[in-house]
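Input (TspO protein):
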Amino acid sequence: MSTPTSTSRLPDRDALPWAVAFVILVNLVGSVPGVLSSPDSAWFRTLEQPWFYPPSIAFPIAWTALFTLMGVALWLVWRRDASGRRLALGLFVVQMVFNVAWTPAFFALENLLAGLVVIVPLWVLIVATILAFRRVDWRAAALLVPYLLWVTFATVLNFELWRLNA
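Output:
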């Protein structure tokens, strides 16, 4: 049985608390808007839903998983001393601002078009973040792909809700 060496691909024990902290931070930041407003509102329940609207339980499960992947990706980039790291971290913060802004724009303002106005640039920012992360750590970029796919679905869903209820 061999013992881990400094060339091991696993992070050292001192790194694990930082990884967990990043995951918790991203989950906390990402969940704040959901605490303030939600799809359980009387307004949202009156909207005509598209045929592909998922069950309500899908959203907290999906977002927890996505925020966890995002936290790990952010940690991977943060710990690297690589060219492009500052840009990647900056793009992550900006896309996260748009991510957090979507829920109040859509649910608190009860405005489907405002949701679209936020989610379309969010999608572009996620693509830019993935490209920037790829320059720093390809694993971090790969961890953001499910997020991009979910936001693509959410954009189509937001558009369809707007179209059906305009």
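Confidence is low (pLDDT under 50) at residues 1-7.
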